[in-house]
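Incident log, structure service

09:12 report received: a user says their structure output differs between two submissions of the same chain.
09:20 pulled the input from the user's history:
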Amino acid sequence: MVGTALGLSLVLLFLSVPVFLVFGLGSGLVAIFGLNLPWSTLIQVSFGAVTKHVLLAIPLFIFAGLIMLRAGVARRLVALAMAMVGHWPGGLGVAMVLTMGFFAAFCGSILAAITAVGSIMLPEMKKSGYPPAFSVVLAASAGLLEALIPPSNAAIIFSSLTNVPVSQTFSAGILPGLVLMVLLIVVVMIRGRAFSRNERAGWGARLVAVRRAVPSLLTPVIILGGIYAGLLTPSESAAVAVVWAAFVGFFIHRELTFEGVWSALKATAVTTTVIFSIIAMATFLAVVLTYTQAPQHLTAYLLQYGIGPITFLIMVGVICLVLGTFIEIVPVFYLTVPIFMGIALTMDVSMLHLYVVFTAFAGIGLLTPPVCVGIYTAASVANISADKAFPQVPLFVGVGVIYGVLMIFTPWLAEWLPSALH
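09:34 re-ran on a clean worker, output below:
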């Protein structure tokens, strides 16, 4: 039954059927006609999945990030990064990576971050002689920081699937996110030696950039501080982030307008609809897995052949890498986590370690054709054809694979900070 559901889903996927319908039709038909389950069971499970309290944080974090974007935050963060590292080799590229990291700390949307930062940095990099293809793929690669550095939609979804506290999943992504940032910066500095550099900013200019960016830099402190101080749940922290973003936009930066708020609301509604439609339909596959006990059978099979934790994680990485080439990271989570979660528990693999490995390899899908939504988004911002950026993809995919392998063999990067905060 599971094979039939997956086979039908793959056929629909290759026919370019929207992902939520792939889940709904493939698994729904098997559940109804193969397992003789009533529609009411599927609807109840689906409704329960989308009404989990923890998922309320997703639209709120997205909304907070979009408000901050319209409040001029991205421009101030870029100015801060440029003042600090613009004179380094590849300084513009380094500044873009750092700005993506900063922006990740209060924005829940990868594509919004690529658009916000890329619209400022990509034209500047082109003027300074950076190859547009290199800049586009770098922007798409840096977008993965959004999936690791909290608040992260990927972390919230993983927690909803595994019942791991969101606070732990958030903190598990911080050190791996910083490691990825360092790897990207090293690549940019090596490649950037041939590009022009900015003049070193004076300390006065740096202090001005810091002062202008302070309200933005306080946002992650407010978001994460409330959670780890035990004062706020993730959903409450997201609501506070929205209020703080509106306050910054209206009263500090004074660049946010009611039209901008309405635009952010509409964009949030669109993004949230896409995510929650996938969540609702993906639960149909979870029903099929539950009734057929496929995860238990797969666990027994792997244990029978002596598969160890490292081999298992390598297998997970390869599967996520392949799936991420064809579908986005959210459906990859719903397709794979319910299957491999039980295996990981049986093999004493930490859920937090599993989360980082999942995210590392599935996130490479931002770069790999044919889906590569990160490259398409960055290319549209840079006003170039996406296929012109593809020659630079192998370099950054190689960096991503190296990073993923590093995550497999260094579980402490995912586990140390949650343990220390706990």
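09:41 both user submissions now match this output. Likely a transient worker issue. Closing.
09:42 reviewer note: Residues 327 and 371 are 7 Å apart (CA to CA). Residues 38-421 form one domain.
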